[in-house]
Structures are given as structure tokens and as C-alpha cells.
Amino acid sequence: MNERIKAIADAAAKLFLQQGYSKTQISHIAKAVGVSVGTIYLDFVGKKEILHFVLKCTIDPDFINHELQRPITDDLFTGIEQDVVKLLEESANEFEKHLKDIEDYSFEELISDTFDLMARYAVGCLFIERNQFDFKYLGEHYTAYRKRFFKAMSRYISEFQKQKMIRNLEYPELITTLIIEILSWWAMDVRYTSFETKEIPMELAKAVCMDNIISAYKL
């Protein structure tokens, strides 16, 4: 059943994020799901296949609904790391596109779009952040992506100041960092890696972010 595969993937994702991929064992995943180790192996050949399944579902959320032959092997995930890097590139291009015509874009839209982007790829991004030394190829590309993302966000903030869409900021780079951290915590960390994870509906989390950030900076 795909429901059991989903339960295994969800439990594994949280463990990979909270305690690290290298420290997570199949027995830990089985305990989190409430099944035997043998049951896990009915669905997945091993831990690497579970990880690659999680990453594949980050890239393609509909993948969980495919008819899957079990146990799932790594043959399904050839080139998965390259696919993740490609997604980072496409995501960066999409995020930057309004810089070409900033007059048709608003501060509210920026905050909304940034939250949605972070929420959509939360598991994949957090996994790389917390396991970058075990997955150096992904870590290097993700580091470059984060720098590019911050640069684009800074340019948006600068342009909105020039257009007097937001108030004047004495420390714009620090404020950009603060906005990113607020959004990432509510869109990503609160569900998976905060000290006390909470199942806050994404619509509510987004509404809280929008209300507070826009109230703080919008003229």
C-alpha cells in the first residue's frame, strides 16, 4: 500500500532532518512508523532508497501516487542528485524573474511567493542543510543556491525601498536576513526541526508571517 510507503517516507524524513542521515538506522524508522524492520524491507531495499524516495517526492509530489514495484530499488532514482541541483537552478530562476520588471511586483507578493517556495521544498532543503557533509555534491550546490537566493532577496528589498513601497531600512542586509529567517522558520523548521515541532496548517503559518512582516515594513 502506498499509505505505508508514505508513512515510512514521512518518518524517515523527520529522522534524517532531526538526527541526521548517518545516525538514522532502519530500526529507528521502523519504530517511528510502528512496524517491524522486516516490514520496512518489504517496501524498500535499504535506507538509501528511502532517502532517494523522499528527495524524489520533494521534486515531484505526485510520485507517491505512482504504481511502485516493491521493494523499491535505487534503479528508480538514477541521477537523483543531479535532478535536485537542476531543481535548485530552476527555482532560483523563477524567484529572480520579477527583478526584470519590479514595477509589476509588490512587497506582499514577494513575501507570499517566498513563503510558498520554502514550504514547497522544505524537506529537501532542510535535509541538505543538516547533512551537507555526508552529501558534499548537494551541499556545495545548495550553498551556492542560498547565496544566490539571498542576493536576489536583497535586490528586491533594495528596489522596494527605492520605490517607497517599504519604509527606509538602516540595516537592509540584516533585515533581509531577518525576513528570510522568519519565513524559513514558519515554512520549514516549525514542522520538522524546531525544538518542539508543531503541526500548524501552512495557511495559518503563512497568514502569521504575512501579517507580521508586512505590518513591520510596508509603508
UniProtKB/TrEMBL annotation:
Pfam families named in the record: TetR_N (PF00440)
Q: What is this protein called?
A: HTH tetR-type domain-containing protein
Write the record's keywords in alphabetical order, separated by commas: DNA-binding
All copies of the HTH tetR-type domain together span 2-62
Q: Which residues bind DNA?
A: 25-44
Say if the entry is tagged with keyword Electron transport. no
- Spell out the Gene3D superfamilies in the cross-references: Tetracycline Repressor, domain 2
